[in-house]
Every structure is written in structure tokens, then in C-alpha cells.
Amino acid sequence: CRLPVDTMDIFVNVAGGLKLSDPAADLGICLAVYSSLKNVPLKKTIGIAEVGLLGELRSINMLEKRIKQAKKLGFKNIITAKT
Fold it and tell me: In Å, what is the CA distance from 12 to each residue of 30, 32, 59?
């Protein structure tokens, strides 16, 4: 899906002033931007992957552990890079 983000200023605010340094958050941020621009709620959905400059998804460390925790938290749709 292509979004016209090259014509927009997009600001991401992380709750509590946390600093994100884990690239696993990349896909989650992209999904939040998509959801906002398309006005489409992504219920019980989580994205766990690094996103490259060309939009490719890259696998991250401890993926299975993160998926297990996401399921415990009630996420039903888990989007990751192909491994």
C-alpha cells in the first residue's frame, strides 16, 4: 500500500517520554500512521519488525518471545517479517 507521506509532516509521540531505540517498533509506528491516514482501526493488531528505507520488513531479535508476550496481552493479529 502506498501512502503519500512524502507530502506530509508526521510526528510520533511516545507515551511517558520514553525513547525508542529498538527497531522492532518500526512496523508498529508504520501501522499507526496507516491507521490514522486511512481512518481504519487496526483492532488487536501489533506489528513487530524493523522497516527498511524501501519499506522492506526485517526480522528482529527475540521474535518468538515477543509474539508469545503479544498473545498474552490479547493481540490477535501479529504482523512480522517473513523468517
Answer: 10, 9, 22
Please give the CATH architecture assigned to the domain spanning 5-80: 2-Layer Sandwich (3.30)
CA 30/CA 51 separation, integer angstroms: 8
48 close to 69: Cβ distance less than 8 angstroms:
no
HSE-up (13 A, CA, CB side) for residue 32: 11
Query: Tens digits of per-residue pLDDT, 3-41?
Result: 888 889 998 888 887 788 899 999 999 999 999 999 999
Three cell numbers written together for 2? 502506498
| Strand blocks (E) in the chain | 45-48, 50-51, 57-58, 77-80
Q: What is the DSSP secondary structure assignment for residue 17, as one 8-state letter?
A: G
CA distance 59 to 77: 17
> CA-CA distance, 69 to 35, in Å (whole number)?
23
